[in-house]
Amino acid sequence: MGRTVFDERSVPTESGGFFLRIRNRGLIAAASRRNPVDELAPATVQALERIARSSGPLLRLPRDVEASYREQWRVNANQMRVLLALLPVLIFGGLALAPVQRLGLSGAYHELLTLLSFSVIVPTALAAALVAWLLPERAISGAFIAAGGLVILVALETLRTQGVQWGYTADHGLAVAVPVALAVLGGFRFSRVMAMHACYVAVVLGGSLIALTPSLSPITWVGEAALLLVSALSALWMETTQRRSWAARRLLQLQAHQDPLTGLRNRRAFELHFELAAAQARRDGKSMLFALADLDHFKLVNDRYGHDYGDGALSEVAVVLSQFGRRPLDLCARLGGEEFAILLYDCEPAAAEDRLSVLVAQVRALGIDNADAPLRKLTISAGGVISDGSHSLSLLYRSADEQLYTVKRGGRNGAQLGPLVDS
């Protein structure tokens, strides 16, 4: 089926200063890579339907949409990630610049705080924030945020262990706030959150062993373990909710442009696609085939065999029609009932007549029973016109319908290509 992007979002333009252009270029590239809803495989659609109805943890989407989801989620979480990266700059920059007397620290400890703040914590946080802001759609942005958090943890543990040796007990709440904040606000996947929590525990234990200082008290460990557990469960719940909501939105986009019975595009999708194809045809100087096709004596199928049989017949015919819309600007759609529309880009009259004849032959070859029809099999009639993209869709409809009506009057089970009617 034709490639039409219906997942419309506001996309920035490549304007502004140098850094803004880098950021916007990434956002534009990310938007262009989002899977058009009409390119989703049937198995993927079925998997999304199961996901939208399911409950319980959800850590992965179908393979062909997982990358699109992750990229979109990184863009959505980008602003919060940048703010999280800038927070240590404000905190430690303020602590380092504050008077020693107000902090109640010794001169040597304040000097160490100042040194680590301006040589490690602040530069690391600024670098992570800059990368996250410049490359919001890239996985490396999250990696820089997580790596920055790890560096800050090491710096904080250095402050804690050195403070113990100097007789100053530093509050450990600031350190545990790093993995908790990243888990709850950073938009990281559950597996990444667990890795960051494991790094936190390793840093704290490693700092105590290396510096030969007492580890945290049991009460402190219990409290921090509870915080880490709650934040990890929160990350799991948020990831599950986001994935399930994303799947539901994707299905809604699909349902808005797809016929639920046949899987073909619906009338609205066809009209949107036509405008794109017509504009491209005008730019390229190409011609297009616009055709209407209608199943012959289809009412007799429903009357004799029932609507379930008729729905099955429509689905089989749709499979045949879908083979005629494989190129990016080609499209076949169900307009309603037993009526279909066909748009073939870069199609000259001779090729158009051949394609319509093949369609008629392939539908007849399906051998679908229609005992009350003259040929006792289900057949199709088609009428088409050629356009250069400058004609309105309503004119093409009328013209193709006139050709279709001529085929119907001539006995059905055929196709005809003709001129445009007078507008």
From TrEMBL:
> Please, one GO biological process term?
negative regulation of bacterial-type flagellum-dependent cell motility
What's a single GO MF annotation on this record? diguanylate cyclase activity
**What EC class is this?**
transferase
Q: Which UniProt keywords apply?
A: Membrane, Transmembrane, Transmembrane helix
Identify the EC number(s): 2.7.7.65
Which NCBIfam families is this protein grouped with? Answer: GGDEF
Q: What is this protein called?
A: diguanylate cyclase
The organism's lineage is: Bacteria, Pseudomonadati, Pseudomonadota, Gammaproteobacteria, Nevskiales
